[in-house]
């Protein structure tokens, strides 16, 4: 770890991702011989939750905003719109120059708001998760060998504290990648947001025939279990890119339907061959 070691991290939002980050970053810090004080808050917690999150490594459950935000790094791990709203709170209570990051699935909207408020912001998106949410589902291995995308200006990416934090995430097992906020939102609209909406649409479309469905259908509709309160913010803050991907995929379905109706079997076979090759590459990547 660099000489500009991090001594304190605040995590706002202690659900699946926030609590998993807590455990993963604490483990990484301990492995590196670092001592980091972790404080956090979640407005949904009762005393039982506060006691249990302490067993997962939180040093202090801190409802006082002044003390909560008195940290080297602030991680916003709430839903997207809540994270954006919290930036105004941070601008009021955190010391100028504090590095703020988040785990939101979209980056352009929150990056723009942080810029307007003059907050040093390093967007973070761990490409990891589960269908079930809550700190009860959290674990320190959730991000191991998973891509963690960082989005920030060149100045932020080259800052000592940002580099130290990205290194800590890497030590926690994340495969760190860097891209711009717009590039990020366009990419995740394709490989994350589109699959979610397709899974949702498919199970609704096939609702009358679910009794005769098999494991293949269950696999393809796994994402249909995802909660609306998470996806509402994602769709609202990335609607342009998601709309483009849905329309493009719709055109693919229309073309495929035309091939099927006109018995263009060689064209359909080429689609299968291409899909088989791409799936093999995907499995190879995920097994690394």
Descriptive notes:
The chain has 288 residues and is an alpha/beta fold. The chain has 2 domains: 8-179, 3-Layer(aba) Sandwich (Rossmann fold), CATH 3.40.50; 184-286, 6-phosphogluconate dehydrogenase C-terminal like domain (6-phosphogluconate dehydrogenase C-terminal fold, Orthogonal Bundle), CATH 1.10.3660. 54% of the residues lie in helices and 12% in strands. The chain has helices at residues 16-31, 47-55, 65-68, 80-93, 108-117, 154-157, 160-171, 181-205, 215-220, 228-237, 239-261, 265-286, and strands spanning 8-12, 37-41, 60-61, 73-76, 99-102, 120-126, 147-151, 175-178. The protein has an 8-stranded mixed beta sheet with strand order 3-2-1-4-5-6-7-8, with helices on both faces. It is elongated and about 65 Å long. 33% of the residues are buried. The mean pLDDT is 94.
Summarize the model shown.
With about 290 residues, the chain is an alpha/beta fold. The chain has helices at about 15-30, 45-55, 65-70, 80-95, 110-115, 155, 160-170, 180-205, 215-220, 230-235, 240-260, 265-285, and strands at about 10, 35-40, 60, 75, 100, 120-125, 145-150, 175-180.
């Amino acid at each position: 770890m660099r000489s500009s070691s991090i001594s304190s991290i605040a995590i706002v939002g202690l659900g699946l991702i926030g609590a998993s980050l807590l455990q993963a970053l604490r483990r990484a810090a301990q492995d590196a011989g670092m001592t980091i004080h972790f404080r956090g808050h979640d407005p949904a917690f009762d005393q039982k939750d506060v006691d249990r999150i302490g067993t997962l490594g939180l040093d202090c459950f801190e409802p006082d905003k002044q003390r909560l935000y008195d940290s080297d790094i602030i991680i916003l791990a709430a839903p997207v719109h809540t994270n954006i709203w919290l930036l105004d709170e941070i601008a009021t209570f955190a010391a100028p120059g504090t590095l703020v990051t988040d785990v939101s699935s979209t980056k352009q909207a929150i990056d723009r708001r942080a810029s307007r408020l003059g907050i040093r912001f390093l967007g973070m998106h761990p490409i990891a998760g589960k269908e079930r949410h809550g700190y009860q589902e959290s674990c320190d291995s959730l991000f191991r060998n998973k891509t963690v995308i960082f989005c920030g200006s060149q100045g932020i990416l080259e800052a000592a504290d940002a580099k130290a934090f990205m290194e800590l995430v890497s030590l926690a097992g994340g495969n760190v990648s860097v891209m711009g906020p717009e590039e990020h939102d366009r990419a995740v609209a394709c490989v994350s947001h589109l699959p979610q909406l397709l899974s949702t649409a498919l199970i609704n479309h096939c609702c009358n025939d679910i009794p005769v469905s098999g494991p293949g259908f269950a696999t393809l509709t796994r994402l249909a279990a995802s909660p609306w309160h998470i996806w509402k913010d994602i769709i609202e803050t990335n609607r342009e890119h998601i709309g483009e991907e849905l329309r493009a995929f719709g055109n693919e379905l229309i073309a495929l339907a035309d091939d099927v109706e006109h018995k263009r079997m060689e064209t359909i076979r080429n689609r299968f061959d291409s899909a088989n090759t791409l799936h093999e590459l995907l499995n190879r990547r995920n097994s690394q």
